[in-house]
Amino acid sequence: xMAGARPASRFRPRAAWRLGAVLVAAAIGAGAQAQPxxxxxxxxxxxxxxxxMLEQTLGDAIMEQGRRDPTYIHDPDVSQYLSRLGKxxxxxxxxxxxxxxVFAIRxxxxxxxxxxxxxxxxxxxxxxxxxxxxxLASVVAHEIGHVLxxxxxxxxxxxxxxxxxxxxxxxxxxxxxxxxSGDLAMGVAAFGQAAAVDQQLGFSRQAEQEADRIGLDMLRxxxxxPNGMAQMFGQLTNASRLNEGTxxxxxxxxxxxxxxxxxxxxxxxxEAPAAQHHDxxxxxxxxxxxxTLQERSTGQRSAEAALRRETxxxxxxxxxxxxxxxxxxxxRQGDLVATRQALDKAREGGMNSPEIAGLSIALAIKQKRxxxxxxxxxxxxxxxxxxxGVALALVDALQKSGQDQRxxxxxxxxxxxxxxxxxxxxxxxxxxxxxxxxxxxRRSMAVYYEKVGALPTAxxxxxxxxxxxxxxxxxxxxxxxxxxxxxxxRSDRALLERFRK
Length: 501
What we know:
By secondary structure, this protein is mainly α. It has 24 helices and three strands. A hairpin with a 3-residue loop joins strand 2 and strand 3 (about 120-125). This is Putative Zn-dependent protease. One of its GO terms (cellular component) is membrane.
């Protein structure tokens, strides 16, 4: 992985990101004290022990735990932006069909990491520290490079002893989840055991350079400026040097080939045609939101100070985004007057965005101005019909206005638009429940739980729905779904049992 502000961490999530104790600390070498060089440098990875199917099973189950972690960022604007970024990059790769799921966690460290199954985690600090969209995309592309070459799978099966201990701990925790255990502490304990493995795995120097090259190619084909990778690499190197003597001075020992990697990137950029990239508006608004989101209440003043500096230093969209960030900060602190004032500033010069609209709708709902909120939401959806954040704001406005039937109809359409968006099924279930349709509410919740990986809970919801229904045809449909989910649980358990002992 690329170097971070704390090079010993090597894009490691902080301790609060509990599932990282397994995959980031143990599987992909976070916190590694040395960089083993045994991984193949190029070419296809062997799947003798960790097959693509098992890798996906591990990734899905780990993310079920991760989504419950308090550092996981569920914000629709952030999630949709990062998801689109990942898909745009992988579309230009040698394997455009590879599923990529990019998500964010609340952590000011400049870090990122890859998990099994095509999951890429981005620290909020990485987005906030980037100076343009190509810099951010370069790190995401680098991590996708690791995914495409199955470096995570190789790392998990690289060293027999530590691999066995780590996989046994992972499998035990995930088997508990498949059994329907709702006790997150059980998983945390198992993850902690895996994190204690002395010989933690790390990507080889060759694998890091391979991810650089693949990432650079994706960056160029995705329409981003390849110079973003060199810029970000230099920025992270400088941050590392500033940390020397304060716990972050092990960069030279953990990344001895960083100069060669930098030179390789620069040479490849010089050999390629010049490219320019215009930052998307969404990048700036999401960046401003994350600057606020990553701060606890005690850190809001520093975030606000940075955003105020940007309102003075920037023009156009970046300036509007900084004011939006201040509005969002005021919103989180419950200061509705300051929220509206900052939103007005964000709109100066005719500026607007789905993010601004979404916060304005939320403000109107909070102030019980439901008719105004609904009018704003309908106008925003007409203007930005591809924005998940606006769609959810419209659902909220409909539900708060008591229009649950319209909300269900709108959600049905959005589910066809975004079939993998789990939250839509949960919202539909809420409206069905208020409409007195308990069967459909539970069937919708079953889909929600399946989407987030909680298969036993999905089965429970379907069983409840079946017991409430007197329609033989509907009951038969649910019987089929229950059998399918139970078979998936059985299949996943069989895969994980291989590594339990």
